[in-house]
Design a protein that fits this description.
This protein folds into 3 domains: about 140 residues, Sandwich (Immunoglobulin-like); about 140 residues, EreA/ChaN-like, small alpha-beta sandwich, CATH 3.30.1870.10; about 80 residues, no CATH class. Helix content is about 30%, strand content about 25%. The protein is built from 11 helices and 14 strands. It starts with 9 loop residues before the first strand and ends with a helix. About 15% of the residues have low confidence.
């Protein structure tokens, strides 16, 4: 790291910050970013951290200048307990917000403490990214936050844990679907008469976990009569995939890309959706399986659907509430929320709760309320 330089991590949309160094002294920090999508943040002792949200960089590296604040920040102080971090350890400090690059790499001192002055937010989170594993969350008290981070000790499991797993584990011949149910049938007593079965994974994106999830879904549908597969993904966007599963319409690759969750946009998950379609296409299978999402993190499709409905049933109300293509395009994805709050649009269509609400939903809800009042 350059003498006097700020800690300047490059923040990718789906991963922790990678450490780099900024150049220059004083409040203005200059950093370079190679091609690809990402953002930058910078922090320096005694100054308020700054960041630039994710953007797409072209072939040539681009220079960015981040101006660190002199006041109106929050002092975040943390302590790593229950263990000693490795030398040159770092933590990633972040706030819950509508931004995607307000993640700051902060060095950990030899005594296990770390400190940085960051923009205001709530709550603050810390995650060890170099020199160990662990994390913590805390809310601020005035202009200060005290974070306690538990260091996770990695090592062999206790022998009694190994013995218990050996005595209770169900051995499978393969993680891949399409190999019968003889080896997986012993999970039936674990399911019993449950109507909902939760399928998780220890890590996102691991091939074998998602292959096994496919195999369990295959068993639950074929042998236990389950008819709905639901995942943590945006509900409106998932309807296109359900149309493919039920009727064979659309392209499942496009559908998986459209739900904007990288951990679902894999070959293993695609294979599972193709199997669900094949199951439903078989006339001998009377119990059809459906697909849905049970999350709501973005509202592009939801807003478009509501705007289309209002345009049809109450065009005058919709025009007064900016429910048109221009308004829709202003809020095309969650990365544009922060920019929308300062854009010259109808302020009645902006959220009442800052970055924690979505302007599109707020505008649509108010439009529906106005329509109902007009009809009463």
């Amino acid at each position: 790291m350059a003498n006097g330089g700020a800690a300047a991590p490059a923040v990718t949309p789906c991963g922790p910050p990678s450490l780099g160094a900024s150049r220059g002294l004083g409040r203005d920090r200059q950093a370079r970013r190679s091609r690809g999508r990402g953002g930058f943040s910078a922090n320096h002792p005694g100054q308020v951290g700054s960041f630039v949200d994710g953007r797409l960089f072209g072939e040539d590296a681009s220079n960015l200048t981040l101006t660190l604040g002199a006041s109106d920040g929050v002092l975040v102080h943390g302590t790593i307990g229950l263990g000693k971090p490795a030398p040159d350890a770092y933590v990633a400090l972040s706030m819950v917000s509508a931004h995607d690059a307000d993640v700051f790499a902060v060095p950990v001192a030899a005594d296990g403490t770390f400190e940085a002055t960051l923009p205001r937010g709530e709550p603050y989170k810390a995650q060890i990214i170099e020199g160990g594993a662990g994390g913590g969350v805390a809310t601020r008290s005035g202009d200060r936050v005290e974070l306690a981070v538990t260091l996770v000790a990695l090592g062999p499991p206790p022998q009694e844990v190994v013995d218990w797993i050996g005595a209770h584990a169900i051995a499978l011949a393969t993680t891949e679907a399409g190999h019968g149910f003889d080896d997986i049938a012993p999970i039936a007593p674990l399911i019993g008469d449950a109507r909902i079965v939760g399928l998780g994974e220890a890590t996102h994106g691991t091939c074998e976990f998602f292959q096994l999830k496919h195999r369990v879904v295959e068993y639950l549908v074929a042998r236990q009569g389950f008819t709905v597969f639901a995942i943590e993904a945006n509900q409106p966007e998932c309807r296109a995939l359900n149309d493919y599963v039920l009727h064979g319409t659309g392209d499942p690759r496009v559908g998986l890309d459209g739900i904007s969750f990288w951990m679902w946009n894999t070959q293993e998950v695609l294979a599972m959706f193709e199997w669900m379609r094949a199951w439903n296409a078989n006339p001998e299978h009377h119990n059809k399986i459906q697909f849905t999402g049970f999350d709501m993190q973005m509202s592009s499709i939801a807003y478009t659907s509501v705007a289309a409905y209002l345009t049809k049933v109450a065009p005058a109300t919709c025009r007064s509430r900016r429910c048109d293509e221009t308004a829709t395009s202003r809020f095309s994805d969650r990365r544009q929320r922060a920019r929308a709050y300062s854009s010259p649009v109808d302020r009645s269509c902006l959220p009442l709760h800052g970055g924690r609400a979505d302007a599109r939903v707020s505008c649509a809800v108010r439009s529906i309320r106005a329509f109902k009042r007009a009809q009463s």
